[in-house]
Amino acid sequence: MKNGDFVEIQYVGKIKETGKIFDVTDETKAKQANVYNEGNKYEPIQVIVGAGHVIKGLDESLLDIEVGETKTFDISPEKGFGKRDSSLLQIMHLNDFKKHGIFPRAGLKIEINGHWATVRSVSSGRVKLDFNHPLSGKTLLYEVTVLKKIEDSTDKINAILKVRAPGIDVLSQTISIEDEKVNIGLKGINPPYRSSLEEFIKSDISTYIPEIKEVSISFLD
Question: How large is the average pLDDT for residues 39-46?
Fold first, then answer.
């Protein structure tokens, strides 16, 4: 693979130290490992190599694998979810939570001012919060399979839509390519997100599908 390639991949992500699976794209493997969550969507993902659609270490590993291959890669904290940062530990008074009807306990995830924290301990009327990513400081192990390389321009645009609008039903969108121009009709996009989404899609197409010179996007209610 090389930077700018569109690929479809499957992977299993584990914490190297414990072997615990924290992310998996295959439903059967999720069930076999007893980490299946009915609310999750299990399917191969489509990414652009080098575009930062996945963590840095996984992105870089795609440069060392071919279509049809399965390889396992160690990923350091620096190229995973970062090193642990002691400045992201915070102490709050227990009463600040109780007056809002919250009774913290170790391991509980709490959202504070738009940021998620994990409760590390509760003692002597104080609550220790950790705003680090739960996987920060962990060396990761990824088993990656490249299923295919995406070559068709319409399929590439669909891949961009999946990345930029997670959960979008690409089959309900309209894509029409004629010569060097593409017309895209998007459904199910709430107005507050339309402007930024349009900007991202146009930028991605310009950068990664240079044969398309003009992009027109309309939002269909």
Answer: 91
| Chain segment 152-188, per-residue pLDDT in tens | 999 999 999 999 988 888 888 999 999 999 999 999 8
Q: What is the pTM of this model?
A: 0.84
Torsion of CA 190, 166, 162, 35, to 10 degrees: -160
Residues 123, 126, 127, CA angle at the centre, nearest 5°?
90
Q: What is the 3-state secondary structure (H, E, C) of 55-95?
A: CHHHHHHHHHCCCCCEEEEEECHHHCCCCCCHHHEEEEEHH
Select from 10, 27, 12 the least CA-distant residue to 69: 10
Q: Which residue has the tokens 């919250």?
A: 102
Distance CA 177, CA 190 (A): 25
Amino acid identity, position 105: R
